[in-house]
What does this fold into?
Amino acid sequence: MSIFMIEKKHKELWEQWDQIIRSQAYIDVRRRIFRQLIESLIYEGIVQPDMQHLESGFVAFTINGTGNDGSIVKYMCQGKRKVSFERIRLNAQPVQRVTSQHEHEAVSLATFLVEIFQNTDVDTGRLSQFIDEIQQTLLKDTLAHYYRSPQTLEGKERSYDLLESNLIDGHPYHPCYKSRIGFDLTDHMAYGPEFKPSIRLVWVAVAKERINCLVTSRKEYAAFIKQQLGDSLYGEFQTNLRNRGKNPDQYTYLPVHPWQWENVISTEFNQHCWEDEVIWLGEGQEDYRPQQSIRTLANASLPTKPYVKLPLSITNTSTGRILAAHTILNAPIISDWLSQLLDQDLFLKEKCSLILLKEIAGAAYRSADVSELLQSKVYGVLGTIWRESIHTYLKPKEEAVPFNAVTHVEVNGRPFIDRWVKEHGIERWMERYIEVSVVPLIHMLYAHGIALESHAQNMILVHENGFPTRLALKDFHDGIRFSREHLADPQQYPALTPVPSHHPKINRNSFIETDRPDVVRDFVHDAFFFINLAEAALFMEEHYQVPETVFWSKVAHTIRQYQEQHPQLQQRFELFDLFAETIQVEQLTKRRLFGDSEFRVHDVQNPLNTFGTLPKRRDFELRSKIPILGVNDGKSS
It folds into this structure.
């Protein structure tokens, strides 16, 4: 996007600012954040509300707080504890703030957080940072909804590439689902997928001794990049270097996100630029459009060309969006490994027709020789991963949609899938949706011992006329987990680039290897069952009156049917027990409030354990075996 267009958006934004923050979009987003925030605070045991059962079937939750003057403040809302992993689900009634003088809708997320943590040991620095992420989410999601098209998604707007922009919902559980810390509001509008910007990549030449490159199937990175650039632009870059008195053979070409160049690379690498170790070459000639993950860009000029994933020094939904060098270099290795497994596995290849979008090339700046003090400035900020396009795999009549399209509601309140459900019938469509999505993932787990982090952005649903046909999976460089000892064929395990010693300090939750099979299993449960399928279960109940228990009974039936068809894997079914009574899921909000000094997970009831029937327990009881983090001591009790 040109500087002129960014400045135009900047001017328009402030001219309309008063309308924006007084709009219905602002109110709707604020209410949504309140719901998700309170749901996660209760669910993760961060607060323990007073509860009262109502005749309506809901429970009234009361969260106690303290005002600035020491007075008692109460926040009241209504909801239920659901069958799906005991998730808390609030109803649409706005949260009420109650004092001795007034009762009215709670309108300040910041005040809410300050008041409920007023007399606790929650670190004020972390709380302040968390409030900032909440406030940024409020403003950025408000802008996305304010400028959202009032039209329903029709025609090409339902095509895969445009759906990556049109599905603006963000994470359905995390309260900071659109914080994008690092982007100001103008950046958000210039580079956020919701605004469908056209982006030109910045290209730099990096001295070869400063870069590590890998490509799948032992291809050459230079040849791959020449193919991406095209002969004309590649020749232009070669000439550019020669005119500077440089030998092009001593450099590697690397794309950079324009925001990253302006805000990070130009500053932190200015010495490298002065020494001609990093040379700015200019913009590319093709237009790219950001996908939902923001840092992955799709080629809008030639959709069959690979997607490019670029580091962004921003934080969104708990995670920094840089690209660690070891994950970049492991991307092609892991893709080759998974591709080999797929080629050898007739069930996955022929029965499931599974698509693996391989990460075919990676290049990463070498920061190992940089002083420890400067490491945090340059680690993971310059690099790239190239991934295959879904368009190269689709058969005639097949179309693709991002996986979270299934639970998307359009501006008119109608589900995105409604026309498909009406044509094929809710039961038939839902059973096929479950089969297509569940079977390949559990086969990878049972038959190979590999868990894939299958959250919505890592999955693509392929369909014909709205009827699910197969699944596409992506993002493997740090989105898998396994125990080497429990791989079906440890001999095929490739040698991966090791995790640097300092990386766990940056992200304790980022690892791919463990010695515990239950941790491998829960990697599937957490991302896929806990988020993806739980959201689908709640969605089907809310929009199509399908009880959660019915949905989970169909999931359980699909797994049992698979197990009956593969009796030779019986020991693996027990090793990776998807029907365990409880499983561990990550505490996303607790990570923001209490940090990553420990691995923050908690045990929750597994809806598959009862084959889709209600667990034998009292509703809304916070069972003693679930670790509860008290807000007064900051420790597990």
Q: What stands out?
A: The chain has a mean pLDDT of 90. The radius of gyration is 25 Å.
